[in-house]
């Protein structure tokens, strides 16, 4: 037990030092000791280990003429360690390699063929990366991110958007657990990854906030007192299946009128018809961006649909605010493509609905990150929550 505690303390201190060096390029050991209140000896020992293991760099010992010889200035060493992120979406796996400084250094889209499953294709993609691009030693772990509720108790995933085959469905989690025995592996819900990226990389100061992710489905992740509600398994909240209309359109989950049936991109074409003729009528597939542009151009049906979608989201969000009272609502994923009219309408309706005392003190904005920030969030969540400096976690497996 004592050794386990010592390992936890060492891991926690090394992560703290790494994180401070990340945020304060060029910091010295003395400043680190002052900021962390660790002893100078502890800081010196741990920093030496981080340098020795190639996580950080002492620019004072660097030979680079550009950096110069400034002793004791510490920076993180980019592109030395990576996390592989496999984002499973409909019929495709997006493979990304992200270094632990947050730089995405490899991105590839791999199409699922009829004879392949998510598991066989994931294994193939990782094997190719290890054969051709990255050494095994520089990969800290593998994250699989899915738009799904991941049930840790029954070891099952429930998704209304993934193209899971019958052969995938059975024992998927159990097989994933053993798919990459040489690495620690985590399966994470994509909305939680987006939300974590937003929290870390946009330096959110509010302790209580909700991140609503627009993708093929709709999801939400909530932070209370600075902590993610539940873990990153999507098992605590299914915002996309909140129904403001139980007599509405049938949802893939079996319920009716779920937010996903009203707010997701693939429902735009069906819904636009209910508002009369539109500039977009001839388009086979209509994106959020198309809808925004048509509305900005004055297309009546598009304006009406944007306003309707904003009202539905505002009603659902007003109810969410009554339950957890977040100070900030962030609309992320592909939501920013809905543009300024949608956000203005959302704010207007939100001010009209819900418990005024709470709703009036909640602000809202679009995500400030790219729509593919999920991979950065997955890497950072994995690094912060699961990676350990103090022990080798090869073969470990986490749900969320
Ligand atoms: Zn549903």
Structural overview:
With 400 residues, the chain is of the alpha/beta class. The protein has three domains: 75 residues, Arc Repressor Mutant, subunit A, CATH 1.10.10.10; 136 residues, ATPase, nucleotide binding domain (Nucleotidyltransferase, domain 5); 164 residues, Nucleotidyltransferase, domain 5, CATH 3.30.420.40. Helices cover 39% and strands 19% of the residues. Strands 5-4-3-6-9-15 form a six-stranded mixed β-sheet, with helices on both faces. Strands 12-11-10-13-14 form a five-stranded mixed β-sheet. It has a two-stranded antiparallel ribbon with strand order 1-2. Strand 4 and strand 5 form a beta hairpin. Helix 11 packs across helix 12. The radius of gyration is 23 Å and the shape is globular. The two termini are 25 Å apart. Zinc ion binds next to loops. Zinc ion (ZN) binds next to loops.
Structure described in brief:
The protein is of the alpha/beta class and 400 residues long.
């Amino acid at each position: 037990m004592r050794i386990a505690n010592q390992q936890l303390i060492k891991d926690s201190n090394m992560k703290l030092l790494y994180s401070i060096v990340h945020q304060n390029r060029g910091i010295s050991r003395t400043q680190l000791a002052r900021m962390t209140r660790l002893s100078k000896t502890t800081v010196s020992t741990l920093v030496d280990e981080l340098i020795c293991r190639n996580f950080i760099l002492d620019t004072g010992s660097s030979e680079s003429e550009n950096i110069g010889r400034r002793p004791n200035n510490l920076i993180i060493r980019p592109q030395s360690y990576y996390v592989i992120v496999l984002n499973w979406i409909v019929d495709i796996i997006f493979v990304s390699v992200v270094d632990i400084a947050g730089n995405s250094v490899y991105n590839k889209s791999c199409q699922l063929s009829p004879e392949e499953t998510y598991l066989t294709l994931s294994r193939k993609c990782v094997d190719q990366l290890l054969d051709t691009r990255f050494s095994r030693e520089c990969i800290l772990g593998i994250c699989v991110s899915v738009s799904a509720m991941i049930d840790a108790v029954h070891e099952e995933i429930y998704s209304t958007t993934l193209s899971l085959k019958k052969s995938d469905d059975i024992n998927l989690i159990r097989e994933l657990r053993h798919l990459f025995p040489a690495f620690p592996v985590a399966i994470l819900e994509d909305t939680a990854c987006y939300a974590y990226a937003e929290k870390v990389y946009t330096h959110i100061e509010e302790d209580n906030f909700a991140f609503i992710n627009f993708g093929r489905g709709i999801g939400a992740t909530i932070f209370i007192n600075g902590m993610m509600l539940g873990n990153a398994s999507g098992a605590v909240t299914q915002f996309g299946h909140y129904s403001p209309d139980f007599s509405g359109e049938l949802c893939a989950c079996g319920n009716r009128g779920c937010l996903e049936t009203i707010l997701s991109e693939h429902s735009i074409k069906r819904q636009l018809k209910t508002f009369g003729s539109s500039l977009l009528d001839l388009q086979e597939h209509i994106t959020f961006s198309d809808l925004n542009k048509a509305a900005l151009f004055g297309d009546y049906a598009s304006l009406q649909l944007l306003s309707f979608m904003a009202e539905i989201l505002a009603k659902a969000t007003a109810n969410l605010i009554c339950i957890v009272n977040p100070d900030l609502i962030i609309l992320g994923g592909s939501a920013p493509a809905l543009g300024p009219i949608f956000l203005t309408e959302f704010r207007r309706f939100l001010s009209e609905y819900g418990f005024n005392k709470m709703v009036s003190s909640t602000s809202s904005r679009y995500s400030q990150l790219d729509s593919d920030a999920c991979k950065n969030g997955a890497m950072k969540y994995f690094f912060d929550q699961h990676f350990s400096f103090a022990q080798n976690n090869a073969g470990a497996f986490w749900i969320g």
